[in-house]
From TrEMBL:
The chain crosses the membrane at residues 55-76. Residues 129-156 form a coiled coil. The gene is rsiV. Residues 209-280 form the DUF3298 domain. This is Anti-sigma-V factor RsiV. The keyword Transferase does not apply. Keywords: Coiled coil, Membrane, Transmembrane, Transmembrane helix.
Length: 289
């Protein structure tokens, strides 16, 4: 009996005729609600897109993506294979700058390091950051010029770091930069670190007020002539007035010998590659007295 009453009430409820005016009010209210949701969604979408554009614009302006070791367990795992350089500095991050536009393909990857010596850590990181940003700005300016002129290019550039030498007293790290257009050219900037003092060595600091520029230049010129004498294809773009720069790149090899370095095309044809000269120990010893 009770169930019959309930069924009857359901039937009466379902048969209630909703007045058209009320139906219109309900539909209008529903449509207004949906329109508000849609408009709010549109506003949220526009806001999100605007923020994304701001983000990408700022990222493009700086051209910098910092890949943290902690960002990826796989990436962090791969860094475990990177040795501590000279037992004094460790790679903790890589700062990557990228350009791929108008035929310009640039990839710059320079490390961020940590060290027990905070002064050394600061100096190296500032140097790496400066070199990376300066290179990026240079290539970015080239792209802007191409766009203004309505031109494209076929040029690539890659910048990276390597530990190039180590001995009991020093470790040497180099920033390499290879540009390829019609041909390839490689340059490098070298940082020599004293393991004991945890300082960055310079030729001027090592030799003090001694006239090391003239002494080293004379020896290198002599070596150039000797090489050409042994091989006529081993030629150099220098004459008897040749002088190295006061801050000429160098490193200390695994035997503790001073090696003076030149970039491709700096003193010889590109086919010679990066040119190096080992300075005899007796000359170095005299300069350090």
């Amino acid at each position: 009996m009770k169930n019959d009453k309930i069924d009857k009430l359901k039937e009466n409820y379902n048969n209630i005729e909703i007045p058209k005016e009320l139906d219109d009010v309900i539909n209008d209210a529903f449509n207004e609600s949906e329109n508000k949701k849609l408009e709010n969604n549109k506003k949220d979408w526009r806001r999100n897109m605007k923020n994304m554009k701001k983000w990408y614009a700022s990222a493009a302006a700086v051209g910098l993506i910092i890949v943290s070791v902690n960002a990826s367990s796989t990436f962090a795992k791969s860094l475990e294979n990177i040795p501590v350089i000279g037992n004094i500095i460790r790679v903790v991050n890589f700062n990557n700058y990228r350009i791929d536009k108008d035929g310009m393909d640039v990839s710059i990857s320079l490390p961020e390091v940590s060290s027990d010596s905070k002064d050394l850590e600061y100096k190296l990181n500032k140097e790496f950051e400066k070199e990376g940003k300066e290179a990026y700005k240079k290539y970015e300016a080239e792209v802007e010029k191409l766009e203004k002129e309505g031109k494209t290019t076929h040029k690539s550039a890659e910048m990276w770091t390597e530990s190039i030498a180590e001995n009991a007293k020093t470790v040497s790290v180099a920033i390499y930069n290879t540009e390829t257009e019609a041909s390839a050219a490689t340059s490098r900037k070298i940082y020599n670190i004293d393991k004991k003092d945890k300082t960055i060595l310079t030729l001027e600091g090592m030799f003090g007020n001694n006239d090391y520029v003239d002494v080293l230049s004379k020896n290198i010129l002599s070596q150039m002539k000797e090489r050409t004498k042994k091989d006529s294809n081993d030629v150099y773009f220098v004459d008897n007035t040749f002088k190295i720069k006061k801050d000429q790149p160098f490193y200390i090899n695994d035997k503790g010998e001073l090696v003076i370095c030149f970039d491709e095309y700096e003193v010889a044809p590109g086919s010679a590659g990066l040119v190096e000269f080992v300075i005899p120990s007796n000359i170095v010893s005299k300069l350090m007295k």
